[in-house]
Amino acid sequence: MTESQTYIFAGGGTGGHLFPGVAVAQELRELDPSARLLFIGSDKELEQTIFSRLLLEHRSLPVESLRSLTRHPVRFVTRNWQAWRIARQWIRELQPAVVVGLGGYASAPIVWAASRIRIPVVLLEQNVIPGRTTRLLSGASELVCTSFAEAIRHLPHGTSIEVTGNPVRREIAELHNIRPERKHQELLILGGSQGADRLNDAVLGAVSELRNELSGWHIVHQSGLRQIETLRSAYRELHLNATVEPFFDDMKVRYQSASLVISRAGATTLAELTCCGLPMILVPYPQAADDHQRANAISLRDHNAAVIVEHKPSPADTTKVLSTQLAAMIASPEMRQQLSDAAYHLAKPDAAAVVARRIQSLTASR
After folding, report:
1. For the chain, how many structural domains are there in total?
2. Nearest to 292 by CA among 125, 150, 128
3. Residue ranges in the chain assigned as alpha helix (H)
4. Whole-prediction pTM value?
5. DSSP 3-state assignment of 83?
6. By the 8 A CB rule, do 250 and 229 touch?
7. CA 242 from centre of chain
8. Is 282 helix (H, G, I), strand (E, B) or coil?
9. 185: confidence class by pLDDT, cuts 50, 70, 90
10. Are residues 330 and 358 in the same domain?
11. 3-state SS, residue 131
12. Range of 106's domain?
């Protein structure tokens, strides 16, 4: 009898890093039902919530991001030293067939420990501008799977790279074959898995200006925790039909019913939106590392698949530009349809299956 394989998915911290790994794990489970799928990342509450809901095995490391180095240098050194030691121990105990790096600081200890004893490493890079961890560890990998072709020029020469697209969970990828007519009017607002206060403020200002134009619309707003009650109260005062929640577990339903989206430009969200062929106004997070969200958004805009609104120095100016773009989209079903068609044709709904097959080929060759 063939011994079952263990696949480790390393990384986390945000849904943008986690969900591509979940999508690939789903495909590996189809290819090898006996495989052990283990996610190792940070101890953030978001990760605990996602993996308990999905019934996936998860372990956490005491990792600290580079941002904490100046504020808590002793804790940074102590916890990360512990994380690296634990990672090395787990890799030697588990002897995984392949380690899949999902990006972010939480992936580094496991990926490095695996590469040191020649366990194959596959890195998933979601953004146009690869993250610092991907750039540093690409030399230790067998393969880097990128979402955007533009990412290739940002990776070290000689890196083995394949443009697979960004893996999307199967229930979302399946929407690519449905394409509802979207006759109803629903505005979906996405600030990322942890919310986005500046985006929330800009959106609230814009919908206040356009409350008459939006009177027949249903607004679905993923707000994060900090501003949820403020937003709910504001929508009530504006007499707008709105559903506001800190985080949505039923994104398949939300995507199916949406007819227009305002969103940050995280790569995983963009991969899901293109799979669904949704017209989108993108408001990139200006403090994203290497301004990667802006680069992601520009890639879609250059393919006529999105409109970009950038944050201005004055919040009032941001609101004004967003209001203008939103008004144009509300008034023009034809514009929404053009963006929808372009987004649909950019999608790579089979990305997770492609990555899973590449991982299995490494297992076989080993």
Report:
1. 2
2. 128
3. 15-31, 45-54, 68-71, 73-94, 108-116, 132-137, 170-173, 197-209, 228-237, 251-257, 267-275, 292-302, 315-331, 333-346, 351-365
4. 0.91
5. helix
6. no
7. 24
8. strand
9. very high
10. no
11. coil
12. 6-168+349-365
* pLDDT of the residue at 105: 87
Note whether 111 and 153 are same-domain residues. yes
Q: Is 328 helix (H, G, I), strand (E, B) or coil?
A: helix
8 A C-beta contact, residue 223 and residue 262 = no
For residues 65 and 105, membership in a common domain is answered with yes
8-state DSSP, 311 = P
Q: Is residue 1 part of a domain?
A: no
Q: Are residues 331 and 199 in the same domain?
A: yes
Q: What is the pLDDT of residues 187-233, one digit of tens each?
A: 999 986 566 889 999 999 999 999 999 999 999 999 888 889 999 99
Burial (CB < 10 A; 0-12, 13-18, 19+), residue 181, is exposed
Mean of all residue pLDDT scores within the chain: 92
Q: Which one, of 336, 344, 182, 337, lies nearest residue 276 by Cα?
A: 344
Burial 291-323 (b: 16+ CB within 10 A, else e): ebbbbbbbbbbeeebbbbbebeeeeeebbbbbb
Name residue, tokens 């009530």. Answer: 236
Q: Is 340 contained in some domain?
A: yes
Token pair of 34 as six digits: 């006996």
Residue 6: closest CA among 114, 96, 106: 96
Residue 237 pLDDT exceeds 50: yes
Task: For the beta carbon of residue 179, count every other beta carbon within 10 angstroms.
Answer: 13
